[in-house]
Amino acid sequence: MKKYLCLCVFSFLGGFFLFPQDDIQTVATVNLTKTEPILVKQLRTRVEAVEKATGRRLSTDERREILNGMIDEMLILQAAVRDRISVEEGTVNQQIEDLRTQLTQQAGRRPTDAEFAEAVKAQTGLDLSGFREQMKKLLVSQKYLMEKKGNILQAAKAPSDAEILSEYNQWKTSADGIARLTQEETIQFAAIVFPYEKDADKAKARNGAEALEKEIGGSVRQFDEKVQQQSTEYRATTAGVMQKNKKAQSEVGQAFMDAAFGLKYDPKTGATEVSKMIEVPTGTARGFYIIKITAKYPFKSPLALDDTMIQYSTTVRNVVRAALAQERQQDAIAKAQDELTKELRKNTPFKINEQYLDKF
Known about the structure:
By secondary structure, this protein is an alpha+beta fold. The protein has helices spanning 9-13, 40-54, 60-82, 89-107, 113-124, 128-154, 161-171, 175-180, 202-216, 220-228, 246-252, 254-262, 316-344; strands at 26-30, 36-39, 186-195, 235-243, 278-280, 287-297, 308-309, 314-315, 350-352. The strands form three sheets. Strands 4-3-6-5 form a four-stranded antiparallel sheet, sandwiched between helices. A three-stranded antiparallel sheet has the order 2-1-9.
């Protein structure tokens, strides 16, 4: 298991300062600048997440390694506070807004405040207030690592064309790689959505969608005009992308899939048609839709190196390049954190209570 300061927000947050302080079992204490405990319950959260992912019980040594990672996180954060490292509230706000944007892209519409809070809770176990606090701590720790060991992080080299080709060829020889290089039948579409959160709002959304459906009358020109208009009744997007698979079906339902993939589209002329009203009855995409296909792509596996991966709006080459760059960046982060924590661990500013490592 590598110890590094993870750049992925959701994976970093699980279990860190999450539980109430009335659990008297303290598995470790960190005291670089002040005394802070790590509780058995906090360690349990980390351990159980790994055990769930691996499908086995971790050994005492593996649990100790996870605990040492938690100690390193706390040491870095204490050192950052000591050295007066801080981040602006606007930076925290932007990170949270970026996460909202990701959910918007996944759902095809911007999530409501309640939906966003629900997604955060499901991924991290935190309410929005706690999530924001942990986000700020993560950003402070990252900034401190960059200031102290930025030379290591900046030394990571960009992958060469030869390395990209080699990695691509490896993808083609593994099941996971082939899955990444498989493009399901895919559509791009524009959509007008009358969303509703509660059943009490459903009738109003349906009435609005039915009225607009009659006004458009199946006309592509009328549909395009409505997409461009600003409206408080509906939301519009020209950037919908959907693959014909079980995941998409679970999100939008069979009726939407059948209607969307059944619409005509001529790739030579761009001729298309506008759908009737379609309901998505559950999930974050809940609402009444009127859509128009803007592109169709057939099933293909494996994609060639310079084929476009529709879901990422870029080529396979660029996706492989990004994957290699991320791997190197993570290695650099691991090296930087190892160096930094070795320095912070001098004079042993922490204590581990070994008897609690296997108490759960």
